[in-house]
Write a structure and sequence with these properties.
The protein is an all-beta fold and 343 residues long. The chain is built from no helices and 32 strands. The protein has strands at residues 3-16, 22-34, 42-47, 52-57, 61-66, 71-77, 83-88, 94-99, 103-108, 116-119, 125-130, 136-141, 145-150, 156-161, 167-172, 178-183, 188-192, 197-201, 209-214, 220-225, 227-228, 231-232, 234-239, 242-251, 257-262, 272-277, 281-286, 292-297, 304-311, 314-319, 324-330, 336-342. It starts with a strand and ends with a strand.
């Protein structure tokens, strides 16, 4: 399976100039239409390597896709219900998937059957995070529970439960034994994997926290929230070294912000982040000031569920209606965002 066709496609975007003026512009670019990775909504996407991504969807499939060539590398079938999260073991061919069937499965590109099936949650699994040394996996669920697994043996080594802690996302802090966790109870918890206990709780927000991402240096993290009509619908920057107050809010989406990521600093003059929302928009923000630098509208895609950094200039965006969008970040004239392919 490979590329299908190219389409000359127009899409609108908004651009915030440095002087604060918001401009309406029209993007006319050739969008490469590749063979679809999924036949239904895509719930989550993650980068496995500089050319491979892993995605999970409502079709119960886990798909490894080469987004540079437009080819499906592997399709894994094993879950009985929608796949909710995917996570990869760095510098390997191994990955994990979580599902509404309450199972977590470990896959290897060299095989077709799951290497491990991890069963321990009583409800849908909504969080997956691999430790920096790749020896442990932390999973979280709407059953208020976090489990810590030994990757080699597949055994559960720690279990912790907090009342009303409906997990929405997990993220392991680089080079540290700590795990960040967002929740439907509007709080963000920092867990210590050594005994799996809460090391810190950040000040509660006013809305459900949907996602989190940690900077490469492990000093800062992002969280984002649900909302409607512009109420909530924001991302927030926090400092892990000074844990009392948030640093900056990124306000401008009109529906739930489902994902937020730090963008690579390789080509950017200033640190920038990206967010995706159920309002069908991907935004780029100045990390330090909170100013929206660029807005790309993916009209007709439905809610945008997940973002992943492909390489220094590429973003992968999972959507409800139009599969996965490959976006290109252009820093040559200030940050701009183009859709270059869909699959």
């Amino acid at each position: 399976m490979g590329k299908l066709q190219s389409k000359l496609k127009q899409s609108s975007f908004k651009y915030s100039r440095p002087d604060g003026v918001l401009e309406e512009r029209i993007q006319t670019k050739t969008v490469q239409e590749y063979s679809p990775a999924h036949v239904d909504a895509v719930s989550a996407v993650a980068a496995l390597s500089p050319e491979l991504c892993v995605s999970g969807g409502k079709d119960k499939m886990v798909v490894v896709y080469n987004w540079k060539t437009g080819n499906v590398v592997k399709k894994f079938k094993g879950h009985e219900r929608e796949v909710t999260k995917v996570a990869c073991i760095p510098k390997s061919n191994q990955l994990f998937s979580a599902s509404r069937d309450r199972m977590v499965m470990m896959w290897d590109l060299q095989g077709s059957q799951p290497r491990q099936q991890l069963s321990g949650h009583a409800m849908v699994v909504t969080g997956l995070a691999v430790s920096p040394d790749s020896t442990q996996l932390c999973t979280g669920s709407r059953d208020n529970t976090l489990l810590l697994w030994d990757v080699e043996t597949g055994q559960c080594v720690e279990r912790a439960s907090v009342s009303r802690n409906l997990v929405t996302h997990l993220c392991w802090v680089p080079r540290e034994p700590y795990i960040l966790q967002t929740s439907e109870d509007k709080t963000i918890r920092l867990w210590d994997s050594r005994g799996l206990h809460v090391a810190h709780m950040f000040p509660a927000k006013q809305h459900i926290q949907t996602y989190c991402d940690v900077s490469e240096d492990g000093h800062m993290f992002l969280s984002c929230s649900n909302g409607f009509g512009g109420e909530g619908c924001e991302a927030t920057l926090w400092d892990l070294r000074q844990t009392r107050n948030r640093i900056c809010d990124y306000i401008g989406h009109f529906q739930t912000v489902a994902s937020c990521v730090f963008l690579p600093r390789a080509l950017a003059l200033t640190p920038v982040i990206a967010t995706s929302s159920h309002d069908c928009k991907v935004k780029i923000w100045n990390q330090d000031t909170g100013a929206c630098l660029f807005t790309l509208s993916l009209d007709g895609s439905g809610p945008l569920n997940s973002l992943a950094v492909g390489d220094t200039v590429s973003l992968l965006c999972a959507s409800f209606s139009r599969g996965i969008h490959l976006l290109r970040v252009d820093h040559s004239q200030g940050p701009k965002l183009w859709q270059v392919a869909a699959f």
